[in-house]
Design brief:
With 145 residues, the protein is mainly alpha-helical. It is built from seven helices and three strands; from the N terminus they run ααββααααβα. It has one domain. A three-stranded antiparallel beta sheet has the order 2-1-3. The two termini are 24 Å apart.
């Protein structure tokens, strides 16, 4: 059962140990998706990621928080419940924790790695959809992030 990226974004903002910018939130969404696929062999996020200059982006989430610019996004007022079992939430929470420990630029670097879905999809000046098959392939091949 895939969930909306916006719901997951709100969950991440609530669970995060540090304040996140839109870019950091996008990276956390992406790496959470990779970890989830690696563990459960299915996609967590229903929405498509697009290959933007600084890495994978879910357009709807970007639009929701773009007014923050590079500033930290306020935590949502109420907790978001994803309706997933404990095992799945544990993987998501661990992924958020891993991303929280990495710098802004380290996350960008890792999302741009050779052989990754973003690298295979990015075209200068365009915002191409990254196929779910490429994301799944990246998760299976080299998600040693």
């Amino acid at each position: 059962m895939a969930i909306s990226a916006l719901e997951l974004a709100k969950y991440i903002l609530n669970k995060s140990d540090k304040e996140l910018s839109n870019l950091e939130l996008q990276k956390t969404l992406y790496f959470t998706e990779l970890d989830y696929i690696e563990n459960f062999n299915e996609h967590l996020i229903a929405d498509d990621f697009e290959a933007w200059q600084y890495g994978p982006v879910v357009r709807e989430v970007y639009g929701e928080y773009r007014n923050y610019g590079a500033n930290s996004i306020d935590k949502p007022e109420k907790e978001t419940l994803l309706g997933l079992d404990e095992k799945k939430l544990e993987v998501i929470n661990q992924s958020i924790e891993k991303c929280n420990k990495k710098s802004y630029w380290k996350l960008v670097e890792e999302s741009h790695r050779d052989g990754g879905a973003w690298k295979k999809s990015f075209k200068e000046g365009k915002k191409e959809i990254i196929s779910k098959a490429l994301i799944k392939q990246e998760a299976k091949n080299n998600n040693g992030f």
